[in-house]
Amino acid sequence: MKRLAIILLTCAAVAAATLQPAEAEPSLTIGSKAPALDIEHWVQDGNGKFQPVTDFDSGTVYVVEFWATWCGPCISSMPHLAQLQNEYRDRGVRIVSVSDESLDEVEALLKKPYPQKEESFADVTSAYSLTTDPDGSTHRDYMQAAEQRGIPTSFVVGKTGLVEWIGHPMKLDEPLAAVVDGTWDREAFKQEMERERQFEEAVQQFGRLANQGMFEEAAKLLNDQIESTESEEYKEQWMMLRHRFRLMTGQADQETFDYYLEDLKKRQGTPYAVGQFGMMLFAASQNGGEVGPLAKETITALESEVEGAEKELQPLLYNALAQLHVIEDQLDQAIAAQEKAIEVADDRQKKRLMPFLEELKAAAEEQSAGTESPAGKE
């Protein structure tokens, strides 16, 4: 069993989880006193409304958000932050967005047009305080102290200077409104974050066991978590992880096949989702997994999706079809599907798809000579 398959399996379960060991408790968490801001460059000032701030004013709510010029989700969040700042401009809310890049990098971005808007980045971010702190001190005080490893991440600092909420800026609306209105339940959210931290730590432990080939121990951890977890949301994720583990390790049973057949049914009508499902099956097969009836059912589903799919999706879908035909030992159909993928692909995609077609044709020749099994089979 290839370790890569287990790593991919673990990452698929929780996008936010990493394989780094988790500490017992972050030094900055919900209810902690928010560190003072020590930011070097204040680039945007809310069109003259906001002055640089270090200590937090009592009665004012602050959103301290971390971003970078290279971060796509950070860029996508900018209009939403501007909208929130405008909405709460006269209600005692201040949004401060902090990069750790050089001033030159930030200023260069501001001069560029914002994607799909007739405005520059400077225009889009002018409503709030856009800043950068190249020495990284603010990043250390917040992101590292709270053990937040991905951006964008926002911290809501309440009217008493305590951290009330930590999360993605696109999910700010509800907690920000509650903090401003005085209805926010800080303790309940702290407990929710602690459950999430414990969940991610358990996922990391599972990943370590699986990567070390300790499959019995990994399976026991999964079963124990499913039995002991009270949260339906986390129980569902553990169930998904257990079925993926069984599929990848050749331990799939009828329960697992039924789980994935239901998953496939839910994906139908969304061509990209069906294609991704097919590629997941191919990865499982390549790593020694047994996919049972899933490949045949997914071929049928993909064939009904591909013709009506958007043109840019068709190469991916035909490629997934080719992979599924390999699982079913149908080399001729696999070659035909991969040729179709290349036919509808652009030049960049053609280069990526061609090696698999060559592999399929070579395998077909060897199979005809009776010397080799189909492509992708070990």
UniProtKB/TrEMBL annotation:
**Coiled-coil zones:** none
Q: Which residues form the Thioredoxin domain?
A: 28-194
Q: Which domain of life is it from?
A: Bacteria
- Matching InterPro entries, A to Z? AhpC/TSA (IPR000866), Thioredoxin-like_sf (IPR036249), Thioredoxin_domain (IPR013766), Thioredoxin_ResA/DsbE_sf (IPR050553)
Instruction: Name the PROSITE patterns for this protein.
Output: THIOREDOXIN_2 (PS51352)
Q: Name one GO biological process term.
A: cytochrome complex assembly
Entry annotated with the keyword Signal:
yes
**Any one Pfam family match given in the protein's UniProt record, by short name:** AhpC-TSA
Q: Where this protein primarily resides, as one coarse class?
A: other
| Any one GO MF annotation of this record | oxidoreductase activity
Q: Tell me which UniProt keywords the record has, alphabetically.
A: Cytochrome c-type biogenesis, Disulfide bond, Redox-active center, Signal
Cleaved signal peptide residues: 1-24
Q: Where in the cell is it found?
A: Cell envelope
Annotated GO CC locations = cell envelope
Q: Which Gene3D superfamilies match?
A: Glutaredoxin (3.40.30.10)
Protein's name according to its UniProt entry: Redoxin domain-containing protein
What is the source species? Roseiconus nitratireducens
